[in-house]
Amino acid sequence: MRYRLTAWWARVLVVFVVSRVVTTAIMLSFAARQEANAWTGAHPGYLDFAKLWDGHWYFIIAVAGYPSELPLTDDGHVGESAWAFMPAYPGLIRGLMFVTGLDFRVLAVFVSVAFALATALMFYKLMRLVLPEGTALFAVVLYCFAPLSPILQVAYAESMHAFFLTLALYLLLKRDYWMLLPVVVVMSVTRPSGLAFALAMGLHVIYRWVVRERDPFPRREIVASVVVGASSVVAGFAWLLIAAAATGSLTAYIDTELAWRSAYVGYQELLPLTPWILAADFWIPGPLGILVLILSVGGFVGFMFTPWVRRLGPDIRFWVASYALYLLAVFFPQSSTFRLFVPFFPLWGALAQPRSWVYRLALVLLCVLGQVGWIHIAWWVDGYDWTPP
């Protein structure tokens, strides 16, 4: 009885705090065994351990900004630089550093955890639009304990992006289009997502037009939704244009992103929808790699049409499908693939629906084991580590 009288936000807060205790304990156990590496000394404290990998790039941006000239490799190709990382997260931390005088590491972890909590609260509100109360809360449990949930408390932009994505989906389901507009803009300069959300908006407009006889689509909402979709397209290309204007190279952002791929397949042009085919042949040479890719894509498509996913409603499915297509179009799968799957987290609402306590307990335990596996594979630096998160 007392549980039912507890405010929804208090229940979400308890879930979040417990999950952060578990994840922090796992990360500290790895930090205690961490050897000296390019970013830290041996056995670093939590704040140093949380600033590994791209966290250092965000640190560079927060204290020095972006370079006006693209670095070149010895053979004349564009090398790795800060231009691969969008400005909202490091810009916010830079502002907080100026106001508070605190260290980047402290503020980076604080900002990430604060946005992670805000996402958990907002995710519950989103799930309550499509799922019963208990199922919505368990979806939050899965979000908080997910295998990639350690990324929510390190110096990465994922939790900030997750918050704005959740808020954007909530406003989309509520059809509050004008409030959605600034959210999409900020989201698009936090992590690459503007073009995927533009496609989701396009599908949303088409769907509402098709069903307008039973669900009226008044002119004012047509105008507002189309404006949001067009603005999302502009926001999706904005960082490419900003990088081009600042460096004098029209392809500055794309060339910088391709520099990370070169370690696997060398320097190549970006041809949409080909990276996963290249990766299939790279990781599993020959026809078997293509077969695995086809089966994986087919399995994902099939899952999208299951009753559990369909209960999430058309708009969440539009986002998931649009983001999946975006990844298929531009991303080369490697160890960072797991992190780029984070924006699929609304699908936890589908996996949360079975009510068996055995199923739910087993799924949470698998998520915790997944955290251990992901930290071991991607976050923990093990010698000459070529598996970045």
UniProtKB/TrEMBL annotation:
Keyword Kinase: no
Principal place of residence: endoplasmic reticulum
Pathway(s) this gene product operates in, as recorded in its UniProt entry: Glycolipid biosynthesis; glycosylphosphatidylinositol-anchor biosynthesis
Topological type in the membrane: Multi-pass membrane protein
InterPro entries: PIG-V/Gpi18 (IPR007315)
TM region positions: 12-32, 104-124, 136-157, 177-210, 222-246, 282-306, 318-337, 357-381
UniProt keyword Aminoacyl-tRNA synthetase present: no
Alphabetical UniProt keywords: Endoplasmic reticulum, Glycosyltransferase, GPI-anchor biosynthesis, Membrane, Transferase, Transmembrane, Transmembrane helix
Entry's localization field: Endoplasmic reticulum membrane
Taxonomic superkingdom: Bacteria
PANTHER family, alphabetized: GPI MANNOSYLTRANSFERASE 2
Protein name: Integral membrane protein
Organism lineage string: Bacteria, Bacillati, Actinomycetota, Actinomycetes, Micrococcales
